[in-house]
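Trying the structure run again after the queue cleared.
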Amino acid sequence: MSLMDLNDLSRHTTIDTSVSQACARLSAWLEDARDALSEHTVRALRADLKLFVAWCAERELSPLPALPGTVAGYVDAMARDRAPSTVRRYVTSIAAAHRATGEESPLEQPEVRRALQRMRRRNACRQRQVQGLTWALRRRLIEAAGDRLIDLRNRALLAVAYDAMLRRSELITLQVIDITMDAKGSASLFVRRAKNDPEGSGAVLYLHRDTVALVREWLVASGIDSGRLFRSVRKGGALGERLDPSQVPRIYRAMARRAGMSARAVRRISGHSPRVGAAQDMIASGIGIPAIMQAGRWKSASMVQRYGERLLAQRNAAAQLARLQKRD
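Done. Tokens:
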């Protein structure tokens, strides 16, 4: 992974020596964290901290250690135009950097807690649900795709993401060697490291034969026989070395627009949409929460329940009672 050095920020910003030293400490910590954390987590931490350092530099404030008032002010500023979940992630990243470098976590300070409470009160509404790309939508998007090389990649990408319930960070790092075909035409997929698998023990997942057929079509047309499974495709059909994670939700949205999905639904598509859609399909099919957690490699049931809350409501005690009372 290409590492952006936070020291570069200090060299191009008018800030004092203490902030330059903080940049150096943060950069050193992130470099060390590469072996302990997933690539996706390090990338997110780096982006979050770069934003915080830049905000502090503009105001001549220290980002490390950051005073409680600095972090509280940052929360207030970011909450004006960012989702509460995003701001909470920013603060979590700042707190992690403080703990890792031996400083007191700002999350423990009353001033920061009050700022987070203010944000929650101002945004006292439910977080917008991601648009799940269920089996019906998966099929619709794949059937609507064209026949260009980029379309072959997009079909295979979506199919693999759905079957294996992959996060975008897992999807873009897959290697051709990670797919093992079996005699029935299906395949097993080895995911080397996931967000919740910092030790890199990996997981073996399932790909149906229709997904394998789409992957084969992409590999034959692209000429890829080793290295990264999914890569960027430039104009004229030239292949890049890798696919950036930010491209994954853009690919899904472009496919959805081509398939005629509503603008509102397209806006709600994220890099997790096939993962969410597969979980929703499993719930609708009567598969139990523990089995869904195992398939999606979730550590708790909370996200599964969040993704499938409307479907699960149809099975709760009130719904069962209504059916027993033959109220339909």
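The longest strand covers residues 187-191. Worth checking whether this holds up in the mutant runs.
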